[in-house]
Amino acid sequence: MPSRDITTSTKKEIAVNVQAIATDTTTVGNIIDTSDIGGINFTLFSGAYTDGSYVILLEESDNSDLSSSNVVADGDMLGQDAASSTSPELQTVIGAANLNKKIGYVGIKRYVRPSIVSTSTTTGATLGCIVDEDVNIKPATV
After folding, report:
1. If exposure means fewest CB atoms within 10 Å of the residue's CB, which of 1, 31, 34, 45 is most exposed?
2. Per-10-residue mean pLDDT for the chain, 142 residues long?
3. How many CA atoms, within 13 angstroms, populate the side-chain half-sphere of residue 124?
4. How many domains does the chain have?
């Protein structure tokens, strides 16, 4: 039986709006400001699914518009299976209906943006991505 409150210690935001994706494309999400949170976790989820493969791509930058951004290095992401030899972003592959896959960000950049990269898509799937933010654990100040 749960005995701890996580309702007030976490915050959820839409990271990529729920939508039908029916082509091979990169669907760009919202920029997340990590300055006042202790940790973040992205969850990619699917609803209706016909075909294709979908994966989260994370970009990071110290600039609020993500200018001069770069793709997040594997070492700055946590896959949902820490013992896996598969890279964290490949652990987020969705290839069926009603699935969810998560990936954590442990990098040092202030701004992070998820995107959904779709491949082998003809009719597609409905997908979205949310971000869980730990608002009780604050970053250390120097």
Report:
1. 1
2. 71 94 97 90 94 94 94 88 69 87 93 95 96 73 52
3. 15
4. 1
